[in-house]
Write a structure and sequence with these properties.
The chain is mainly α. Helix content is about 70%, strand content about 5%. The chain has a two-stranded antiparallel sheet. The termini are far apart.
């Protein structure tokens, strides 16, 4: 199986072993947020937040709900490994499609400009 990158180190090879901690880390990095920022949002210290991402501490149900709200995802998504992988792959595909669409639009604009110059 090819190891297509999903997001921040998550690959198709280990996609069924994605933990809540890894999902939280990937979502934070995708938004370019620091651990300090996340700790502030959760009302905890940076070391306490770091322990969540490193899976040194379990995430309580109330904190899980808070994290889901912060990341605008369902708490069940954070818990469901298989669904998380599918959604993660869809997000990567959407980003790639958006990038390709933008490139196509630039090329169309350049072609139109060249065509208009020849007229």
């Amino acid at each position: 199986m090819e190891m297509a990158e999903l997001d921040e180190g998550l690959t198709t090879q280990n996609m069924y072993d994605i933990t809540i901690s890894q999902k939280i880390r990937a979502l934070r990095k995708k938004r370019h947020w620091s651990q300090k920022h996340m700790a502030e949002l959760l009302g905890i210290s940076v070391p306490a937040y770091s322990k969540i991402e490193c899976a040194f501490t379990e995430v309580s149900v109330s904190r899980l709900k808070l994290l889901a709200g912060i990341f605008e995802v369902k708490a069940s998504w954070l818990l469901d490994e298989e669904e998380a992988v599918v959604n993660q792959e869809n997000e990567v595909l959407k980003e790639k499609l958006n990038a390709c669409t933008a490139k196509v639009m630039v090329l169309q604009r350049k072609l139109l400009e060249r065509f208009e110059q020849k007229i």
